[in-house]
Amino acid sequence: MMDFDLYLRVTRLYADYAAALDSAQWDKWPEFFLENCTYKIIPRENHERGYPLATLAFESRGMLRDRIYGTTETIFHDPYYQRHVVGAPRILSAQDGRIEAEANYAVFRTKPGQPSTVFNVGRYIDVIRDTGQGLLFESRLCVFDSELIPNSLIYPI
Fold first, then answer.
1. Which of the four pLDDT bands, split at 50, 70 and 90, describes residue 27?
2. Within a domain: residue 151?
3. Is residue 105 a contact partner of residue 122, using CB atoms and an 8 Å limit?
4. Domain for residue 155, yes or no?
5. Long-range contacts of 99-108, Cβ-Cβ distance < 8 Å, separation of 24 or more
6. How many domains does the chain have?
7. pTM exceeding 0.90
8. Following CA atoms 39, 96, 130, 18 in sequence, which dihedral angle do they give, to the nearest 10 degrees?
9. What is the pLDDT of residue 2?
10. Is 102 domain-assigned?
11. Is residue 152 part of a domain?
12. Could you tell me the CATH number of the domain that includes residue 33?
């Protein structure tokens, strides 16, 4: 039987993560992760075949901070908003402060003066650690369903 409190905490982690990204609070993004973490955006085909090639791959909170610096200070692009719709998480296992969970997601993108479009759809495959002060991602795989990402991938998924 699953611990309902744990389920609520994981759901809150997912909701807070999406809210930070959707409100462009980029500096908060790395704080959802442990110092030693993994964050990858990988096509479904590569993931299912066991191919390691990812569209983006970071291996520490420091690398996530570098990505945010690059995104906000060096990359020039047409402005857009994004909105995450995250499905209810499924907790696959929870033992000794280590939680394996997954959830489906859809990210919509809206450029000013244009209609919203579906930007990326897939599922999160996560390893979450209970640090005693809260839940943090040890690993987050964003496995996207399509073979291509339209235009460029700038902001986190």
1. very high
2. no
3. yes
4. no
5. 99/6, 99/10, 99/126, 99/127, 99/128, 99/129, 99/130, 99/135, 100/126, 100/127, 100/128, 101/10, 101/126, 101/128, 102/126, 103/14, 105/18, 105/142, 105/157, 107/82, 107/83, 107/157, 108/82, 108/83
6. 1
7. yes
8. 50
9. 62
10. yes
11. no
12. 3.10.450.50
